[in-house]
Design a protein that fits this description.
- By secondary structure, the protein is of the alpha/beta class.
- The chain has 2 domains: 183 residues, CbiD-like; 184 residues, no CATH class.
- It contains 13 helices and 18 strands.
- The strands form 6 sheets. It has a 5-stranded mixed β-sheet, with helices on one face. It has a 5-stranded mixed β-sheet with strand order 15-14-16-17-18, sandwiched between helices.
- It is globular.
- It starts with a strand and ends with a helix.
């Protein structure tokens, strides 16, 4: 168990480690056992975040006749609620005649079936950072023990197929199991109550600076957009993560005269359906919203079916553009976004929305967005 903690609003919360760290640790242990013939009860791993882990190695299975060793590391999500907490992540390694390192997924690891995801179609859903961690671990162990031949790595999660049904993987085009994830190697738990209180505090701070108009952005894409669009807007900006409803409540409570919301269409399209908590585990409906508005504007059955089958909003935008519907759909979406945001605020202030995509640039501004921009 990782005995490292963070404090959020006076709450002590224990860190955990990702499925990617588990996979990389299991691979290092299995390979060391393969090359030395000696059991490895614990394996050390340095995560991309710089935190060193000492991981217990479980379920060791050595088959010297086949030059194969497998073992597992148990996932520890710390104090973060996570469907994968307690799962055993298995790695099987074997020597190959062909040089190089081959990394693939086995039982319970999903496989990519659609374009637009991080890995190519047909690949195991092992994301780039875990792949790099596994690659680096294999290279390190091979150097240490002077092995120069090829290595095959298979990552498995025996319970992954069933647990994946509780995730959005099937909808995203990842079939047959879970994804092996993690960008830092460490799980940092986040209390929703603590995060919301942090957002409220930042909005309150904007109010104490006598700012009458507030800018809200869901994340880094929105902040990067504002920096490029008009850096001065960042002085009025608070990042609200997925909690737009609570951020609007706070803006009303602290007496702001206007709020501008700026964000990527992948998040903000949900506002057109009245969704005020945009985390994917609470609601998706991106394609349903885009498809319904396209249908109102005359999209045919084939176009509607293609939109519903999209994985990413950029993919859907391309379809709308090719069908000559992009401008019309965006006009409708901006109207609905502003309607629902104004409804949530109870008319306490003027609301405006501006949305964009990295591929298409600015996609739309709602009716009151320009007015709030001018006042800002």
């Amino acid at each position: 168990m990782l005995e490292k903690y963070i404090y959020k609003n006076n709450q002590k919360m224990r860190l955990g480690y990702t499925t990617g760290s588990c996979a990389a640790g299991a691979v290092k242990a299995a390979l060391q056992m393969l090359l030395t013939g000696k059991p490895v009860p614990y394996v050390e791993l340095t995560t991309p975040k710089g935190i060193r882990l000492n991981l217990e190695v479980l379920d060791i299975n050595i088959q010297y006749s086949e030059n194969t060793v497998s073992c597992a590391v148990k996932k520890d999500a710390g104090d973060d609620p996570d469907v994968t907490d307690g799962l055993k992540i298995y790695a099987s390694v074997c020597k190959t005649e062909k040089a190089g390192i081959r990394i693939d997924g086995g039982e319970g690891v999903g496989r990519v079936t659609r374009e637009g995801l991080e890995q190519s179609v047909g690949s195991a859903a092992i994301n780039s950072v875990p792949r790099a961690m596994i690659q680096e671990g294999v290279e390190e162990v091979c150097r240490r023990f002077g092995y120069e031949g090829g290595i095959s790595v298979i990552i498995s999660i025996p319970e992954g197929r069933e647990l994946a049904k509780k995730t959005f993987n099937p909808r995203l085009g990842i079939e047959g199991g879970l994804s092996v994830l993690g960008t830092s190697g460490i799980v940092e738990p986040m209390s929703e109550a603590a995060l919301i209180e942090t957002i409220r505090m930042e909005i309150r701070m904007q109010n104490t600076q006598d700012h009458k108009y507030l800018v809200l952005a869901p994340g880094n894409y929105g902040l990067d957009f504002l920096k490029e669009y008009n850096p001065k807007l960042l002085e009025h900006c608070v990042k609200y993560s997925n909690f737009l409803g609570e951020a609007l409540d706070a803006a009303a409570e602290y007496g702001f005269q206007g709020v501008l919301i700026a964000g990527h269409i992948g998040k903000l399209v949900k506002l057109a359906g009245g969704i005020m908590n945009t985390h994917s585990r609470n609601a998706d409906a991106r394609m349903e919203i885009l498809t319904s508005h396209a249908a109102v504007l005359g999209a045919g059955q084939d176009t509607a079916a293609a939109l519903m089958d999209c994985v990413t909003t950029d993919e859907a935008l391309d379809i709308l553009k090719d069908a000559g519907l992009l401008k019309g759909v965006m006009n409708r979406l901006m109207e609905r976004m502003e309607f629902y945001v104004s409804h949530r605020s109870g008319g306490a202030f003027s609301c405006g929305v501006i949305t964009f995509s990295l591929k298409h640039g600015i996609l739309g501004k709602s009716e009151h967005a320009e007015e709030i921009l001018r006042l800002l």
